[in-house]
Amino acid sequence: MENQDSRSSPETVFLAFLGGAIGGMIAGILLAPKSGEETRRMIQSHARRTEDDIIERAKEARAALDEVIERGKHFVDDRRADVEAAMKAGRDAMKEKMDQYRD
Q1: b/e per residue, 5-25, with b = 16+ CB within 10 A?
Q2: Complete DSSP assignment for 24-87
Q3: What letters, b where the CB count within 10 A reaches 16 and e where it falls short, cover 69-103?
Q4: How far is CA 60 from CA 52, 57, 64, 65, 74, in A?
């Protein structure tokens, strides 16, 4: 008797894989709870709802971003006015002191 190698050949592994894949497809078809058409409609419906939800959230995010930008603009304008007032007060005080020393 010849001594046989205990490993499977690549062909045997491929055929076992192919047999398992075919068996899985048959089991999936026989045991599927819904028909293919129903499943496709369900997936399309879910995709549409998800798309609508994403669009709605994007609109909400855009509105929130616009609000933050607007508040930021007001903040900068307020601070600019404060800085300009402080600079004017500083210039006036400096001019007054210089006028005092000139006299």
Answers
A1: eeeeeeeeeeeeeeeeeeeee
A2: HHHHHHHH-SS-HHHHHHHHHHHHHHHHHHHHHHHHHHHHHHHHHHHHHHHHHHHHHHHHHHHH
A3: eeeeeeeeeeeeeeeeeeeeeeeeeeeeeeeeeee
A4: 12, 5, 6, 9, 21
For residue 90, is it within any domain? yes
Q: Which two tokens stand for residue 43?
A: 């997936």
Per cent of the chain over pLDDT 70 is 93
Residues in the chain: 103
Assigned token pair, 53: 């939800």
pLDDT digits (tens, 9 = 90+) for 1-29: 454 555 778 888 989 999 999 998 888 87
Instruction: Count the domains in the chain.
Output: 1
In a domain, 62, yes or no: yes
In three-state secondary structure terms, 2 is: coil
